[in-house]
Amino acid sequence: MTNMVLPAATKVHMLIGQCVPCIKQGASKFKIKRLELDSNLNMFFPKHEVVYAHDPEKICKTGDYVIIEKLPEKLTRLITHKVKEVLYPLGDVTDPITGKKVVVGSFRDHIENVSKAYGEKKTAFKYEKAPKRGWQENKKDFTHVETYIKYHEDGSNDPTAV
After folding, report:
1. What value, to the nearest 5°, has the Cα angle with vertex 162 and ends 77 and 63?
2. Is the domain covering 15-88 a CATH 2.40.50.140 domain?
3. pTM of the model as a whole
4. Model confidence over 113-162: pLDDT tens digits?
5. Which of 27, 91, 92, 144 is deepest in the core (most CB within 10 A)?
6. Where exactly are the structural domains of the chain?
C-alpha cells in the first residue's frame, strides 16, 4: 500500500490565508503561504497552497486576510475548512502587537507626526477622512460580484471574469 502525501494545509487546525477570486457558491478560496525547506541550499522558500472554506455569508472579500478553521468533517471533496474571522481587510493593515495602523513600513501616527513637524502638504493623503472599503463597488471595486471563468477572449474587458 502506498502512502498518500497530503498537503500540509489539510493537517493544520487553523490557518491564515488570503482570499482570492472563487466561482464556488457558498465557499471562498484562500491562498496559504507555507515555507518549504530546500535541503540543498538549507534555506526556506515560499510555497502557496489553495484551500476552500465554507463561507455562505460571504464575509470576506478578495484580498482580505482571514483565519480559517478546519471542519470536523469535510462538506465536499474540496471544502475542508470554514471562515472564522477576517483579520485584515484589504488595504487596512494593523500591527498585531501594538494595534496601530500601518502604511508600507511605518505607523500612520509616525507619518502624521513627521508631516506636522516639517509642514503638511496640501496633497497629502488623509487616512482619517478616507471612506471605508466598499464605497467604489460597481465602479472600480468588483470583489462583491460573483466571478466566472472566462474561456475565450472576445475583446471585452469584464472585471468579474477569472
Report:
1. 80
2. yes
3. 0.67
4. 998 899 888 888 888 888 776 677 777 776 666 677 778 777 777 777 76
5. 27
6. 15-88
